[in-house]
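hey so i finally got around to running the thing on that chain from the lab meeting. sorry it took forever, my laptop kept dying and i had to restart like 3 times. anyway pasting the input first so we r on the same page abt which one it is
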Amino acid sequence: MARILIVDDSPSQLLGLKRLVEKLGHETLTAEDGAAGVEAAKREMPDLVLMDVVMPNLNGFQATRAISKDAATAHIPVILVTTKDQDTDRVWGMRQGAKAYVTKPVNEAELTKALNEALGK
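ok and heres what got predicted. didnt touch it at all, straight out
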């Protein structure tokens, strides 16, 4: 069982991802925007972060970069989970340090595969 931080500003998306991740047997933590997500990652040291992109304060690309470039949190894999589905968004997200890129609406099998790969299972 992994501890997974879910960062999304949409309460319904946050709840849906939380249910899916818990159904897979993982513990969840949540944050409502990128800035809160970066702080939670530093404070809680989760095993993985699921990060939305379009959020207030600090967007998911910026938050992913902050987590992946900080020596204290660089070991935490980040999976971007977003409605942004252009190739340029994917490339940019991976350049920020994301380990995977999953588009919404989330396909359970696709997210499960990305989680397992990022967690080394």
